Amino acid sequence: MASAHTWQFPRAFWTANVVELLERAAYYGMFVALTLYLTNVVGFSDINAAWIGGLFAGGLYLLPPFSGALADTIGFRRAMLLAFFLLTIGYSTLGLFPYKETVIPALVVTMIGGSFIKSIITGTVAKTSDEHTRARAYSIFYGMVNIGAFSGKALAYPLRIYMGLEAINLYAAGLTFVALIAVAIFYKQVDAIEHGKTLRDVWKGFRDVVTNVHLIVLILIVTGFWVIQQQMYATMPKYVLRTVGPTAAPEWIANVNPFVVVTMVMLVTHLMKKTTALTSMIVGMALMPLSALCMSLGGLIEARSGDEMVIAGFLKAHPITVMLVIGIMIQGLAECFISPRYLEFFSKQAPPGQEGLYLGFAHLHTFFAAIIGFAVSGYLLNAYCPDPRTLTAEQMVHAYDHAHYIWYYFAGIGAVAAVALVIYGWRRSQ
């Protein structure tokens, strides 16, 4: 066990955190380019690529409670070896065999492997720390998560430009293979959490959550927020590449979000510490329609002022890029108001004594948001920002004149969700 006064932790702790960094870098590098890969390389339509991407992302948020229970049964080390083996096979297949017949099975394998990771890593952090060191241990864990997510997306851009979209998947496979070797050599068995949940317990918790009307309503309302957040991966990459050009960097634009969250979340949490969790969430929800509207302004500015904006007197950028960055900055700020307080509020809606079981499914909103957000994105891209390879030269002239309309739909979703949360809070207070 770690000393209460040092940064010294057992080797299993550091191994788990390093492989978490590698796994997050692999996942986000692949995920930010997933719909591009499915359309540009594999040959799926925007609509089919969106459904596939949404089901993949949704599954990653639905399965962890179940895979976590399995990890408790077979042991963390064996579960982690299985997870990184599956991830390496899945990413390698995506990189080496980009065909319609192989991609979906590869994504299923990747989804199953990825679903193990978070529960195992967080379980290891819990088991290798105590009440004196746990806060420090989790700060290291969340630091590794953010470093991995940021670096994965940052490196995805040069890989896509210079080596192609397939190379991103091979890069991800390389990272998870290194993680697999690291676990095999350095990770000694850490006991599962005492009295861990069985698969039967998890299934009962799932049924209880989905039949609790108050919780399901809350989950569906908060889904509206995450539907807009999902557009960093569902809509934004294709939107910016098609409207700005192939040299645009959606991978770097998406990194604005974690940068804002990391730098602002402590300040926002401090400022909102005397407010209720619901009030903080409502502020965040109210910001989301504004973020989508900002994203829509890029196309309008371009139509009036041309394809170049000067920032701070010397920086030049395309107006669509600038407004996407501003919109995503607002999203990151909104996340600071919502995410830290959502679990607090969610847990209070659970029956007394069942908070832990219910919290296992607190991220059901992301499951719904991934499927809905990606699916809606596919249809909107097809209508307002279609694949240029499906257009004639004549059609291309005005093909993207109304591409910014896409963001109006998401602004509407955000506005409805914000109003619904206000009504939900008012009804719960009656």
List keywords for this structure.
single chain, 430 residues, mainly alpha, Growth Hormone, Chain: A, 2 domains, two-stranded antiparallel sheet
List the helices and strands and how they pair.
Blueprint: H1 11-31, H2 34-42, H3 46-62, H4 64-74, H5 76-96, H6 100-127, H7 134-163, H8 165-186, H9 199-210, H10 213-229, H11 231-234, H12 236-243, H13 250-254, H14 256-271, H15 277-305, E1 309-311, E2 315-317, H16 319-349, H17 355-359, H18 364-384, H19 393-396, H20 405-429
Antiparallel strand pairs: 1-2
Helix pairs in contact: 1-6, 1-7, 1-8, 2-3, 3-6, 3-18, 4-5, 4-6, 5-6, 5-8, 7-8, 10-16, 10-18, 10-20, 14-16, 15-16, 15-20
Protein architecture, described:
This protein has 430 residues and is mainly α. The protein has two domains: 9-196, Growth Hormone, Chain: A, CATH 1.20.1250.20; 205-430, Growth Hormone, Chain: A. Helix content is 78%, strand content 1%. It is built from 20 helices and two strands. The protein has helices spanning 11-31, 34-42, 46-62, 64-74, 76-96, 100-127, 134-163, 165-186, 199-210, 213-229, 231-234, 236-243, 250-254, 256-271, 277-305, 319-349, 355-359, 364-384, 393-396, 405-429, and strands at 309-311, 315-317. The protein has a two-stranded antiparallel sheet. A hairpin with a 3-residue loop joins strand 1 and strand 2. Helix 5 (76-96) packs antiparallel against helix 6 (100-127). The model has no long low-confidence stretch (mean pLDDT 89).
